[in-house]
Amino acid sequence: MNEEIGPSAWRLTKKALTKAKEQQVAAIIIRMNTFGGMVDYADSIRSAVLNAQLKTIVFVDHNAASAGALIALAADKIYMSKGASIGAASVVNPQGEIMPEKYQSYMRGLMRATAEAKGRDPKIAEAFVDPDVEIPGLVAKGKVLTLTTAEAVRVGLSAGEKNDVAGVLAAEGLSGAELTEHQVTFIDRLISFLVSPAVSGVLILLIIGGIYFEMQSPGIGFALLVAVVAALLFFAPLYLEGLAAHWEIGLFVIGIILLLLEVFVIPGFGVAGIGGIVCIIAGLVLSLVTNDWFDFTVTASEQISSALLLVMGSMILAIAGCVVLGKSLLGTSAFQRLVLQDEQRSQLGYVSGRQKEVLVGKNGIAKTDMRPSGKIEIDGKWYDAVALDGYIERGSSVTVEKQENYNVFVRRQNT
User: Fold this and answer.
1) Residue 258, CB half-sphere, CA atoms under 13 Å: how many?
2) pTM for the model
3) What's the mean pLDDT in 321-342?
4) What whole-number distance in Å separates Cα of residue 315 and Cα of residue 282?
5) Which CATH number characterizes residue 376's domain?
6) N or C: which end of the chain has fewer CB within 10 A?
């Protein structure tokens, strides 16, 4: 465990514990060097280590700070290398600023309960979080406790100082044991990469941008493919990490459907469109944070705010980029390869196989909403038409103003 405590570390721990249980091992050793991470994932790892039905050992190889200290306390034994440290578990925000008391209170409770579960001094565990806890000869009031290897051994928190895993095995009477190291696979690394905030932001940008371009040019299909692939890359890793649940993904899909209905079926922009946008944002945000049907007990409000800012920022950038760069993108050589550019002009000898009847001046009925294109009916026949007014409601009376080859242009009749 030599990384920030987060989704990747949680997934690694789950897989390692499952594998250890299947192989019926004598003990599992977590070699730790971390400066901490997210409280909710640290709590999940802590619970898994506490409930593991086998001997658990943490070997602190340099650092077990903050969330790392919480996990270490959940193990049956703690060993530390020379020059290592453990502690400093106050809850801070991404900028390193101390969080309000309610977060510190929650963390103190976790630390105290974990220490008690393993027969360790809960006051020491609490001093890792609370600067108001004073322990004579160890930490003065106003300071958060961090223990060196020697100090941890002296107060009984650590079982001893060891130079490496072999020394830990020897101390536990397992010198002749077969040691299996849990390997981080390419898939594990790929998932860790995809769930990083930066990559998640880019994927959200591609999802929104793809949907926008598909609505602007629905006949191309390439933009929709980009949006679908980006959505799969966004939700699949989060689902595997246990973050995105079925209902959160379903909420996102419902939002897309509502938005499409608003654009192509329901006239104007109202409840369906607003509801669709809300569902899309909610599905994306909720997939990024730990919750159980909106129960955010172990999720700090800052994490929810960060997820919301990530989603909203990515969506705003996507829409702004589409509006500003849309025309430029359509004119690039790379994009032109995706669409047909050849024109069959009458001046070059291209003519249609049959001449369409003259419709100019005739009256008809709009059979669909025209936005501006749609269907009209004239003398019992249906035609594709374009509204010169921009938008004509279904059932309105229309008049054909002009006809260019197979394109029919109409206006709403004045009442």
Assistant:
1) 19
2) 0.60
3) 58
4) 13
5) 2.40.50.140
6) C
Cα–Cα distances in angstroms (integers) from residue 105 to residues 100, 126, 289, in the given order: 9, 10, 21
Q: Is 13 helix (H, G, I), strand (E, B) or coil?
A: helix
- Domain holding 257, by residue range, is 187-336
Q: What tens digit of pLDDT does each residue of 103-136 get?
A: 788 888 889 999 999 999 999 999 999 888 889 8
Question: Which parts of 92-242 fold into alpha helices (H)?
Answer: 101-117, 122-127, 149-154, 165-171, 186-194, 197-216, 222-240
Whose tokens are 């921009």? That residue is 390
Q: State residue 271's pLDDT score.
A: 81
Residue 239 and residue 260 share a domain? yes
Mean pLDDT, residues 374-398: 86
DSSP letter at 414 equals: P
Spatial distance between the Cα atoms of 214 and 227, rounded to a whole number of angstroms: 9
Q: Are 9 and 3 in contact (CB under 8 A)?
A: yes
**Type of residue numbered 256:** I
- DSSP letter, residue 74: T
Q: Which two tokens stand for residue 361?
A: 């001046």
Residue 153 lies in a domain: yes
Same-domain status, 198 and 306: yes
Domain boundary among 131, 163, 184: 184
Question: Which residue is listed with tokens 């999940």?
Answer: 44
